[in-house]
Amino acid sequence: MNKLILVFAIVALISSCSEPSPTSDALRNKIQTILSDKNAIVGVSVIGPDGKDTLSINGTRHCPMQSVFKMHIALAVLAEVDKGRMSLSDQIAVRPSELLPDLWSPLRDEHPEGGTFTIERLIQYAVSQSDNVACDVLIRVMGGPEVISNYFTEMGFKDFQIEVNEQQMQSQWDQMQRNWTTANTSSLILSKFHDRKTTPLSEQTYAFFWETMKATSTGEKRLKGLLPQGTVVAHKTGTSDATERGLTPATNDIGVIYLPDGSPVIISVFVADSKENEETNERIIAELAKAVYDNYTK
User: Of the four listed, 20, 103, 190, 291, which is most buried by Cβ atoms within 10 Å?
Assistant: First the structure.
């Protein structure tokens, strides 16, 4: 598929996301009921198992990604692996100067003096454990945030921007707004990379990436929070701090929920500008995921 055809396909799917399909009216009503008494702006985008049954609420709103962007970093790195420019086994030095104490980093906690890690391990740290040090090392290896952003915009995903790394994003409050996307674009990216017919990933990187997403240990009370025990979810979370006045710009979770028969449902939820507490923000995501799951398993 050439770039022009891909752009038209994306535009068509985004357009379909803006209107309920005949089978999604009940789900839309359920979601609106969940959100009706919440003091937050919530962007939701769902793509059903057939890839056509779509639903979107506030799906074109620009939302700060926070750590959601680590998924995109991993995909851009894996593109380089598939081109033969990198290997998952390549050894990358993590410098002592990169082990910043204010960043969330299991890697730093486990290796306080740094060391050398494979690209495979750095991706696992960054995605599965949302490690900020590993994230910024991968961005450095790639040549900067703009390289990651360009990878997706060149594929036709326009409602998307990455301009800063974790260190920059956390150094100043407003910096988080420079890494943004929409719920619709997030679902489209997930769909493209998950669908075997459209994914640019090789068999090796496809298997590695989705197993890494399934291993995510953050956000247990979000997409997975109310789903039946044992439900497989491949996802990536993102979280901001709250202001002194109790406003939280970002409580996010995007990913793939696998139904009992193995069928994938794509879901992206961005809870933005919320005046609710963190427990409620996470509960919103969990209730939306449960409503989507029930819709496709009833």
Answer: 190
Average pLDDT over residues 193-207: 98
First to last CA, the chain: 36
Token representation of residue 219: 């956000």
Kindly write down the DSSP assignment for every residue of 170-209, as one continuous string. Answer: HHSGGGGGGSEE-HHHHHHHHHHHHSTTT--S-HHHHHHH
Pick the catalytic residue from 24, 56, 67, 105.
67
What's the CA gap between 3 and 155, in Å, rounded?
7
pLDDT digit string (tens) for 135-156? 999 999 999 999 999 999 999 9
Which one from 56, 80, 98, 166 is the annotated catalytic residue?
166
For residues 274 and 278, give the distance between their C-alpha atoms in angstroms, rounded to a whole number. 9
For residues 285 and 293, the answer to whether their CB atoms sit within 8 Å is no
Q: Is 67 known to be catalytic?
A: yes
Token pair belonging to 50: 């057939």
* Predicted confidence (pLDDT) at residue 13 exceeds the cutoff of 50: no
pLDDT at 111 over 50: yes
CATH number for the domain whose boundaries are 3-285: 3.40.710.10
Q: Would you tell me how many other CB atoms lie within 10 Å of the CB of residue 282?
A: 22
Helix axes 183-194, 69-82, angle to 10 degrees: 30
CA atoms within 13 A on the CB side of 50: 8
